[in-house]
């Protein structure tokens, strides 16, 4: 999709912008937005320390490939724009992009279900089909207030460790993977796990618990499935088709 690409933007960067803009629209399509808040970022290909993020103040449905902001890991704009980024996102996204070479996309949400799980001392359980896929993949970070300050970066990174899911206690979640498609699929899995956990918690009776070996097997198989098979790309592009079939073209 290069028809509307400005001359100063490379084809690789434009392709990334198209995918990231679609990701924003998908988050809205699934009902996971928090009005103009929250953020999704994607690291620019073959460029150290630069990533794309949403212009603060726009609804997710107003985001296009062209109006995404290009910033460095400290949140400074690298291209002209009448918009600024959301400062609450720079500490989180900048820290992860600077420290984790295996994470090229980060999505932050706080849906009702995810925020409810983040409130619970036990966090995510791993006894549902989706919860099992998250086994040994979740880190937890204690709430320190709105994420604005550089001194929290090291503590967030320590909480995340080598994992790909960071539960922000009393707040929400951040997920990160090697590309936009894998990150979106991971978020979808986390959201489904949270929805089922909240629903099961509202029912009476005891849950059927899984042996941790089964949960680990599920997590390993899921990782194997999305690593090289193209599964996440198929899922992402199918969801874009579904969205555009129902809502029309995004831009």
TrEMBL record:
Pfam families in the record: Aldolase_II
GO molecular function: actin filament binding
GO terms for cellular component: cytoskeleton
Protein name: Class II aldolase/adducin family protein
Tree of life domain: Bacteria
Domain Class II aldolase/adducin N-terminal as annotated: residue spans: 18-198
Protein family membership: Belongs to the aldolase class II family.
Alphabetized InterPro entries for the sequence: Aldolase-II_Adducin_sf, Aldolase_II/adducin_N, Aldolase_II/adducin_N_sf
GO biological process assignments: monosaccharide metabolic process
């Amino acid at each position: 999709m290069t028809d509307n690409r400005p001359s100063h933007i490379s084809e690789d960067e434009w392709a990334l912008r198209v995918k990231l803009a679609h990701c924003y629209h998908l988050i809205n399509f699934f009902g996971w937005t928090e009005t103009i808040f929250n953020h999704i970022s994607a690291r620019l290909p073959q460029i150290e320390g630069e990533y794309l993020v949403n212009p603060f103040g726009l609804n997710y449905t107003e985001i296009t490939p062209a109006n995404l902001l290009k910033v460095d890991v400290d949140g400074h704009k690298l291209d002209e724009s009448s918009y600024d980024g959301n400062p609450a996102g720079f500490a989180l996204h900048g820290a992860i992009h600077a420290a984790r070479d295996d994470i090229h996309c980060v999505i932050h949400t706080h849906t009702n279900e995810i925020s409810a799980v983040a409130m619970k001392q036990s966090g995510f359980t791993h006894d549902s089909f989706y919860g099992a896929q998250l086994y040994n993949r979740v880190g937890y970070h204690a709430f320190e207030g709105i994420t604005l300050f550089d001194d929290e970066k090291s503590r967030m990174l320590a909480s995340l460790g080598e994992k790909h899911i960071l539960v922000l206690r009393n707040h929400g979640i951040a997920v990160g993977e090697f590309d936009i498609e894998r990150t979106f699929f991971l978020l979808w899995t986390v959201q489904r796990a949270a929805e089922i956990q909240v629903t099961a918690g509202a029912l009476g009776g005891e849950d059927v618990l899984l042996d941790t070996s089964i949960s680990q097997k599920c997590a390993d198989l899921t990782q194997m499935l999305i690593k090289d098979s193209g599964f996440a790309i198929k899922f992402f592009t199918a969801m874009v088709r579904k969205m555009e079939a129902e809502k029309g073209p995004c831009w």
